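Example for tutorial group B:
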Protein backbone atom coordinates (compact mmCIF):
# COMPACT_ATOMS: atom_id res chain seq x y z
CA UNK A 1 0.00 0.00 0.00
CA UNK A 2 2.86 2.37 0.60
CA UNK A 3 3.83 2.12 -3.13
CA UNK A 4 0.27 2.59 -4.56
CA UNK A 5 -0.30 6.08 -3.19
CA UNK A 6 2.69 7.77 -4.96
CA UNK A 7 1.73 6.01 -8.21
CA UNK A 8 -1.83 7.40 -8.06
CA UNK A 9 -0.48 10.88 -7.40
CA UNK A 10 1.70 10.69 -10.53
CA UNK A 11 -1.25 9.58 -12.71
CA UNK A 12 -3.47 12.42 -11.42
CA UNK A 13 -0.76 15.02 -12.06
CA UNK A 14 -0.33 13.73 -15.61
CA UNK A 15 -4.07 14.03 -16.42
CA UNK A 16 -4.20 17.56 -15.01
CA UNK A 17 -1.23 18.56 -17.18
CA UNK A 18 -2.83 17.17 -20.37
CA UNK A 19 -6.15 18.92 -19.63
CA UNK A 20 -4.39 22.20 -19.08
CA UNK A 21 -2.58 21.87 -22.43
CA UNK A 22 -5.92 21.46 -24.30
CA UNK A 23 -7.65 24.28 -22.47
CA UNK A 24 -4.88 26.73 -23.27
CA UNK A 25 -4.69 26.03 -27.06
CA UNK A 26 -4.61 29.27 -29.03
CA UNK A 27 -7.07 29.93 -31.92
CA UNK A 28 -5.65 30.42 -35.39
CA UNK A 29 -7.32 32.99 -37.72
CA UNK A 30 -7.26 32.50 -41.52
CA UNK A 31 -9.00 34.66 -44.22
CA UNK A 32 -10.30 33.23 -47.49
CA UNK A 33 -10.60 35.74 -50.34
CA UNK A 34 -12.77 35.69 -53.46
CA UNK A 35 -11.51 37.41 -56.59
CA UNK A 36 -12.66 38.81 -59.92
CA UNK A 37 -10.56 39.94 -62.86
CA UNK A 38 -10.25 43.14 -64.80
CA UNK A 39 -11.28 42.44 -68.39
CA UNK A 40 -11.48 44.36 -71.65
CA UNK A 41 -14.75 44.62 -73.54
CA UNK A 42 -17.86 46.71 -74.17
CA UNK A 43 -19.61 48.70 -71.43
CA UNK A 44 -22.93 50.41 -71.88
CA UNK A 45 -25.46 52.26 -69.80
CA UNK A 46 -29.14 51.94 -70.49
CA UNK A 47 -32.64 52.74 -69.29
CA UNK A 48 -35.05 49.88 -68.72
CA UNK A 49 -38.73 50.26 -69.53
CA UNK A 50 -41.59 48.47 -71.24
CA UNK A 51 -43.76 49.41 -74.21
CA UNK A 52 -46.33 48.21 -76.72
CA UNK A 53 -45.63 47.24 -80.32
CA UNK A 54 -47.90 49.06 -82.78
CA UNK A 55 -47.95 49.56 -86.57
CA UNK A 56 -46.18 52.67 -87.82
CA UNK A 57 -49.37 53.73 -89.64
CA UNK A 58 -52.74 52.37 -88.58
CA UNK A 59 -56.07 53.52 -90.04
CA UNK A 60 -59.57 52.85 -88.77
CA UNK A 61 -61.97 52.65 -91.72
CA UNK A 62 -65.53 53.62 -90.89
CA UNK A 63 -68.84 54.39 -92.55
CA UNK A 64 -70.14 57.93 -93.06
CA UNK A 65 -73.68 56.71 -93.76
CA UNK A 66 -76.06 54.54 -91.78
CA UNK A 67 -77.49 51.32 -93.11
CA UNK A 68 -77.24 47.56 -93.30
CA UNK A 69 -74.05 45.81 -94.37
CA UNK A 70 -74.81 44.13 -97.72
CA UNK A 71 -71.37 42.80 -98.72
CA UNK A 72 -67.95 42.32 -97.13
CA UNK A 73 -65.03 41.73 -99.47
CA UNK A 74 -62.16 41.75 -96.93
CA UNK A 75 -61.33 39.76 -93.82
CA UNK A 76 -58.66 39.37 -91.13
CA UNK A 77 -55.00 39.37 -92.28
CA UNK A 78 -56.00 40.05 -95.91
CA UNK A 79 -53.70 42.33 -97.89
CA UNK A 80 -55.51 45.19 -99.58
CA UNK A 81 -54.52 47.96 -101.97
CA UNK A 82 -55.56 51.59 -101.91
CA UNK A 83 -58.95 51.99 -103.62
CA UNK A 84 -60.14 48.40 -103.11
CA UNK A 85 -63.81 48.11 -102.11
CA UNK A 86 -63.94 46.21 -98.83
CA UNK A 87 -67.62 46.62 -97.84
CA UNK A 88 -71.01 47.70 -99.27
CA UNK A 89 -73.99 49.15 -97.43
CA UNK A 90 -77.48 48.43 -98.81
CA UNK A 91 -77.92 51.27 -101.40
CA UNK A 92 -81.68 51.12 -102.16
CA UNK A 93 -82.64 53.96 -99.86
CA UNK A 94 -79.82 56.15 -101.19
CA UNK A 95 -80.75 55.44 -104.80
CA UNK A 96 -84.34 56.45 -104.07
CA UNK A 97 -83.13 59.61 -102.37
CA UNK A 98 -81.00 60.46 -105.41
CA UNK A 99 -83.94 59.95 -107.74
CA UNK A 100 -86.08 62.22 -105.56
CA UNK A 101 -83.48 64.96 -105.55
CA UNK A 102 -83.05 64.70 -109.30
CA UNK A 103 -86.82 65.15 -109.72
CA UNK A 104 -86.72 68.15 -107.40
CA UNK A 105 -83.98 69.60 -109.57
CA UNK A 106 -86.05 69.18 -112.72
CA UNK A 107 -89.03 70.85 -111.04
CA UNK A 108 -86.90 73.72 -109.82
CA UNK A 109 -85.42 74.20 -113.27
CA UNK A 110 -88.91 74.32 -114.82
CA UNK A 111 -90.09 76.85 -112.23
CA UNK A 112 -87.00 78.93 -112.91
CA UNK A 113 -87.63 78.87 -116.66
CA UNK A 114 -91.25 79.95 -116.10
CA UNK A 115 -90.10 82.80 -113.87
CA UNK A 116 -87.65 83.82 -116.58
CA UNK A 117 -90.46 84.01 -119.17
CA UNK A 118 -92.57 86.13 -116.84
CA UNK A 119 -89.59 88.41 -116.19
CA UNK A 120 -88.88 88.89 -119.90
CA UNK A 121 -92.56 89.63 -120.64
CA UNK A 122 -92.62 92.20 -117.85
CA UNK A 123 -89.43 93.74 -119.21
CA UNK A 124 -90.92 94.13 -122.69
CA UNK A 125 -94.10 95.77 -121.33
CA UNK A 126 -91.97 98.14 -119.29
CA UNK A 127 -89.92 99.08 -122.34
CA UNK A 128 -93.09 99.78 -124.46
CA UNK A 129 -94.55 101.86 -121.68
CA UNK A 130 -91.30 103.86 -121.45
CA UNK A 131 -91.43 104.58 -125.19
CA UNK A 132 -95.05 105.73 -124.93
CA UNK A 133 -94.18 107.82 -121.89
CA UNK A 134 -91.40 109.54 -123.84
CA UNK A 135 -94.06 110.43 -126.48
CA UNK A 136 -96.47 111.64 -123.75
CA UNK A 137 -98.82 108.79 -124.65
CA UNK A 138 -98.60 106.96 -121.28
CA UNK A 139 -99.08 108.26 -117.79
CA UNK A 140 -96.45 108.23 -115.08
CA UNK A 141 -98.54 105.82 -112.97
CA UNK A 142 -98.65 103.27 -115.81
CA UNK A 143 -94.87 103.55 -116.14
CA UNK A 144 -94.45 102.98 -112.39
CA UNK A 145 -96.77 99.95 -112.42
CA UNK A 146 -94.92 98.25 -115.27
CA UNK A 147 -91.52 99.05 -113.68
CA UNK A 148 -92.67 97.53 -110.37
CA UNK A 149 -94.03 94.49 -112.19
CA UNK A 150 -90.67 93.96 -113.91
CA UNK A 151 -88.68 94.32 -110.69
CA UNK A 152 -90.97 91.83 -108.96
CA UNK A 153 -90.60 89.31 -111.79
CA UNK A 154 -86.85 89.78 -111.80
CA UNK A 155 -86.66 89.08 -108.05
CA UNK A 156 -88.86 86.02 -108.45
CA UNK A 157 -86.56 84.73 -111.18
CA UNK A 158 -83.56 85.14 -108.88
CA UNK A 159 -85.37 83.13 -106.18
CA UNK A 160 -86.18 80.35 -108.64
CA UNK A 161 -82.61 80.38 -109.90
CA UNK A 162 -81.35 79.94 -106.31
CA UNK A 163 -83.77 77.06 -105.85
CA UNK A 164 -82.20 75.38 -108.85
CA UNK A 165 -78.75 75.76 -107.36
CA UNK A 166 -80.02 74.36 -104.08
CA UNK A 167 -81.66 71.41 -105.81
CA UNK A 168 -78.50 70.73 -107.79
CA UNK A 169 -76.48 70.71 -104.53
CA UNK A 170 -79.00 68.26 -103.05
CA UNK A 171 -78.49 65.99 -106.03
CA UNK A 172 -74.72 66.10 -105.58
CA UNK A 173 -75.12 65.33 -101.87
CA UNK A 174 -77.36 62.37 -102.68
CA UNK A 175 -74.77 61.15 -105.17
CA UNK A 176 -72.06 61.41 -102.51
CA UNK A 177 -74.20 59.50 -100.01
CA UNK A 178 -74.79 56.81 -102.60
CA UNK A 179 -71.07 56.54 -103.32
CA UNK A 180 -70.39 56.33 -99.59
CA UNK A 181 -72.33 53.08 -99.45
CA UNK A 182 -69.20 51.59 -101.03
CA UNK A 183 -66.38 51.46 -98.45
CA UNK A 184 -62.90 51.68 -99.98
CA UNK A 185 -59.52 51.21 -98.31
CA UNK A 186 -57.59 54.49 -98.11
CA UNK A 187 -54.10 52.88 -97.95
CA UNK A 188 -52.15 49.81 -98.99
CA UNK A 189 -51.90 47.46 -96.05
CA UNK A 190 -53.24 44.47 -94.20
CA UNK A 191 -56.53 44.03 -92.35
CA UNK A 192 -55.91 43.83 -88.60
CA UNK A 193 -59.54 43.63 -87.51
CA UNK A 194 -63.06 43.39 -88.96
CA UNK A 195 -65.69 44.75 -86.60
CA UNK A 196 -68.91 44.08 -88.57
CA UNK A 197 -70.72 41.19 -90.26
CA UNK A 198 -73.10 40.97 -93.21
CA UNK A 199 -76.61 42.01 -92.18
CA UNK A 200 -75.41 44.17 -89.31
CA UNK A 201 -76.80 47.71 -89.10
CA UNK A 202 -74.34 50.55 -88.60
CA UNK A 203 -75.40 53.98 -87.34
CA UNK A 204 -73.36 57.03 -88.27
CA UNK A 205 -75.49 59.64 -86.50
CA UNK A 206 -72.85 60.91 -84.06
CA UNK A 207 -69.55 59.48 -85.32
CA UNK A 208 -68.40 57.12 -88.03
CA UNK A 209 -68.55 53.52 -86.76
CA UNK A 210 -65.33 51.55 -87.28
CA UNK A 211 -65.68 48.70 -89.78
CA UNK A 212 -62.04 47.72 -90.32
CA UNK A 213 -58.64 48.49 -88.85
CA UNK A 214 -55.84 48.51 -91.45
CA UNK A 215 -52.09 48.60 -90.84
CA UNK A 216 -50.16 50.17 -93.67
CA UNK A 217 -46.94 48.12 -93.48
CA UNK A 218 -46.16 45.50 -90.84
CA UNK A 219 -42.52 45.34 -91.95
CA UNK A 220 -42.05 48.68 -90.19
CA UNK A 221 -43.34 48.91 -86.63
CA UNK A 222 -43.02 51.23 -83.67
CA UNK A 223 -42.98 50.83 -79.90
CA UNK A 224 -44.67 53.32 -77.60
CA UNK A 225 -42.90 53.40 -74.23
CA UNK A 226 -43.19 55.65 -71.18
CA UNK A 227 -39.97 56.86 -69.50
CA UNK A 228 -39.77 58.42 -66.02
CA UNK A 229 -38.92 62.10 -65.84
CA UNK A 230 -35.78 61.22 -63.83
CA UNK A 231 -34.35 59.40 -66.87
CA UNK A 232 -35.68 61.53 -69.71
CA UNK A 233 -32.71 63.92 -69.56
CA UNK A 234 -30.33 61.17 -70.74
CA UNK A 235 -32.36 60.41 -73.88
CA UNK A 236 -32.12 61.92 -77.36
CA UNK A 237 -33.50 60.84 -80.76
CA UNK A 238 -31.25 58.46 -82.66
CA UNK A 239 -30.09 56.39 -79.67
CA UNK A 240 -29.89 52.62 -80.16
CA UNK A 241 -32.52 50.41 -78.56
CA UNK A 242 -32.53 46.67 -77.90
CA UNK A 243 -35.64 44.84 -76.77
CA UNK A 244 -37.30 41.47 -76.51
CA UNK A 245 -40.88 40.24 -76.43
CA UNK A 246 -42.47 37.48 -74.38
CA UNK A 247 -43.17 35.43 -77.52
CA UNK A 248 -39.43 35.15 -78.27
CA UNK A 249 -37.62 35.66 -74.93
CA UNK A 250 -34.25 34.46 -76.31
CA UNK A 251 -34.29 36.79 -79.31
CA UNK A 252 -32.97 40.35 -79.21
CA UNK A 253 -34.43 42.96 -81.57
CA UNK A 254 -32.82 46.24 -82.61
CA UNK A 255 -34.44 49.66 -82.94
CA UNK A 256 -33.89 53.41 -82.85
CA UNK A 257 -35.34 56.05 -80.55
CA UNK A 258 -37.24 58.24 -83.03
CA UNK A 259 -39.20 60.72 -80.91
CA UNK A 260 -39.59 62.00 -77.35
CA UNK A 261 -43.01 63.57 -76.98
CA UNK A 262 -43.39 66.61 -74.76
CA UNK A 263 -46.87 65.81 -73.48
CA UNK A 264 -46.50 64.49 -69.89
CA UNK A 265 -48.48 61.54 -68.57
CA UNK A 266 -49.00 61.26 -64.81
CA UNK A 267 -49.42 57.76 -63.33
CA UNK A 268 -49.90 57.58 -59.55
CA UNK A 269 -48.03 60.83 -59.10
CA UNK A 270 -45.13 59.80 -61.34
CA UNK A 271 -44.51 61.97 -64.41
CA UNK A 272 -43.64 60.05 -67.56
CA UNK A 273 -43.01 60.97 -71.19
CA UNK A 274 -44.00 58.95 -74.23
CA UNK A 275 -41.10 57.77 -76.40
CA UNK A 276 -41.48 56.35 -79.91
CA UNK A 277 -39.06 53.63 -81.03
CA UNK A 278 -38.96 52.57 -84.69
CA UNK A 279 -38.11 48.95 -85.54
CA UNK A 280 -38.01 46.76 -88.64
CA UNK A 281 -40.08 43.60 -88.87
CA UNK A 282 -39.08 41.91 -92.12
CA UNK A 283 -40.05 38.43 -90.91
CA UNK A 284 -43.40 39.59 -89.43
CA UNK A 285 -42.47 38.05 -86.06
CA UNK A 286 -43.59 41.17 -84.19
CA UNK A 287 -47.36 41.42 -83.84
CA UNK A 288 -49.34 44.55 -82.98
CA UNK A 289 -50.06 44.75 -79.26
CA UNK A 290 -47.03 42.73 -78.09
CA UNK A 291 -45.32 43.87 -74.89
CA UNK A 292 -41.66 44.81 -75.36
CA UNK A 293 -39.00 44.78 -72.61
CA UNK A 294 -36.77 47.67 -73.66
CA UNK A 295 -33.22 48.85 -73.09
CA UNK A 296 -32.52 52.32 -74.42
CA UNK A 297 -28.74 52.63 -74.78
CA UNK A 298 -27.70 55.99 -73.33
CA UNK A 299 -23.92 55.49 -73.67
CA UNK A 300 -21.66 52.77 -75.10
CA UNK A 301 -17.90 52.18 -75.11
CA UNK A 302 -16.91 49.27 -77.32
CA UNK A 303 -13.48 48.23 -75.96
CA UNK A 304 -12.48 49.39 -72.50
CA UNK A 305 -11.21 48.06 -69.18
CA UNK A 306 -13.94 47.04 -66.77
CA UNK A 307 -14.55 45.18 -63.53
CA UNK A 308 -17.60 43.77 -61.72
CA UNK A 309 -19.31 46.13 -59.31
CA UNK A 310 -18.63 43.91 -56.28
CA UNK A 311 -14.92 44.69 -56.68
CA UNK A 312 -15.69 48.35 -55.96
CA UNK A 313 -17.90 47.48 -52.99
CA UNK A 314 -15.29 45.43 -51.10
CA UNK A 315 -14.15 46.83 -47.73
CA UNK A 316 -11.41 44.94 -45.85
CA UNK A 317 -11.67 44.04 -42.17
CA UNK A 318 -9.82 47.02 -40.70
CA UNK A 319 -10.46 49.47 -37.96
CA UNK A 320 -12.38 52.64 -38.74
CA UNK A 321 -9.33 54.82 -38.05
CA UNK A 322 -7.17 52.80 -40.42
CA UNK A 323 -9.79 52.93 -43.19
CA UNK A 324 -10.20 56.68 -42.75
CA UNK A 325 -6.46 57.13 -42.97
CA UNK A 326 -6.38 55.19 -46.24
CA UNK A 327 -9.23 57.29 -47.67
CA UNK A 328 -7.50 60.52 -46.68
CA UNK A 329 -4.23 59.36 -48.19
CA UNK A 330 -5.87 58.41 -51.50
CA UNK A 331 -7.80 61.73 -51.62
CA UNK A 332 -10.66 60.44 -53.75
CA UNK A 333 -12.32 62.87 -56.17
CA UNK A 334 -15.48 62.65 -58.25
CA UNK A 335 -15.56 59.58 -60.53
CA UNK A 336 -12.75 57.91 -58.56
CA UNK A 337 -12.97 54.69 -56.58
CA UNK A 338 -10.82 52.21 -54.65
CA UNK A 339 -10.14 48.63 -55.67
CA UNK A 340 -8.19 46.11 -53.57
CA UNK A 341 -5.46 43.70 -54.64
CA UNK A 342 -3.87 40.96 -52.54
CA UNK A 343 -0.16 41.68 -52.02
CA UNK A 344 1.88 39.37 -49.78
CA UNK A 345 -1.33 38.04 -48.26
CA UNK A 346 -2.65 41.50 -47.34
CA UNK A 347 -5.26 43.69 -49.15
CA UNK A 348 -3.63 46.66 -50.83
CA UNK A 349 -5.77 49.64 -52.08
CA UNK A 350 -5.47 51.13 -55.56
CA UNK A 351 -7.15 54.35 -56.67
CA UNK A 352 -8.71 54.26 -60.16
CA UNK A 353 -10.83 56.59 -62.25
CA UNK A 354 -14.21 55.20 -63.27
CA UNK A 355 -16.32 55.81 -66.34
CA UNK A 356 -19.58 54.24 -67.45
CA UNK A 357 -21.35 52.11 -64.87
CA UNK A 358 -24.41 49.88 -65.01
CA UNK A 359 -26.01 47.38 -62.67
CA UNK A 360 -23.30 44.74 -63.32
CA UNK A 361 -19.97 46.35 -64.16
CA UNK A 362 -18.03 49.61 -64.14
CA UNK A 363 -15.54 51.02 -66.63
CA UNK A 364 -11.96 51.72 -65.45
CA UNK A 365 -10.02 54.45 -67.30
CA UNK A 366 -6.72 54.42 -65.39
CA UNK A 367 -3.21 53.43 -66.48
CA UNK A 368 -2.29 51.69 -63.24
CA UNK A 369 -4.35 48.56 -63.98
CA UNK A 370 -4.35 46.03 -66.79
CA UNK A 371 -6.48 43.12 -68.03
CA UNK A 372 -6.19 39.96 -65.94
CA UNK A 373 -5.44 41.78 -62.69
CA UNK A 374 -7.20 40.02 -59.79
CA UNK A 375 -9.35 42.17 -57.51
CA UNK A 376 -10.72 41.17 -54.13
CA UNK A 377 -14.51 40.95 -54.09
CA UNK A 378 -15.13 39.18 -50.77
CA UNK A 379 -13.30 38.07 -47.62
CA UNK A 380 -14.42 35.29 -45.29
CA UNK A 381 -12.88 34.63 -41.85
CA UNK A 382 -12.18 30.95 -41.03
CA UNK A 383 -11.32 30.49 -37.30
CA UNK A 384 -9.86 27.11 -36.12
CA UNK A 385 -7.60 25.79 -33.29
CA UNK A 386 -3.84 25.77 -33.85
CA UNK A 387 -2.40 22.31 -34.37
CA UNK A 388 0.03 21.44 -31.50
CA UNK A 389 2.00 18.36 -30.57
CA UNK A 390 0.29 16.37 -27.81
CA UNK A 391 3.42 14.47 -26.74
CA UNK A 392 4.02 14.36 -23.00
CA UNK A 393 7.12 15.86 -21.48
CA UNK A 394 7.15 15.39 -17.77
CA UNK A 395 10.72 16.62 -17.24
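The residue assignment follows.
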Amino acid sequence: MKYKLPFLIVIAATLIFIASRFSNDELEDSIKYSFSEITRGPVMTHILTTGTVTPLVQVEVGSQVSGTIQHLTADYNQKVSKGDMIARIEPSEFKAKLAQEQANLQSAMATRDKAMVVMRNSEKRMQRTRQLSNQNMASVSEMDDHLFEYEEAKAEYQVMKSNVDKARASVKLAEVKLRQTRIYTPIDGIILSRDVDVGQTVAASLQAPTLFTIAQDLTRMQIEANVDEADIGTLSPGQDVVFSVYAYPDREYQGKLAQIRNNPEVEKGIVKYNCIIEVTNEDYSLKPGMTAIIKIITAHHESTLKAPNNAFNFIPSMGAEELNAIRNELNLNLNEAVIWKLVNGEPQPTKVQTGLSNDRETEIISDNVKPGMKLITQAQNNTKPKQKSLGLNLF
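The two ends are 26 Å apart (CA to CA). Compare this with the pattern of hydrophobic and polar residues in the output above.
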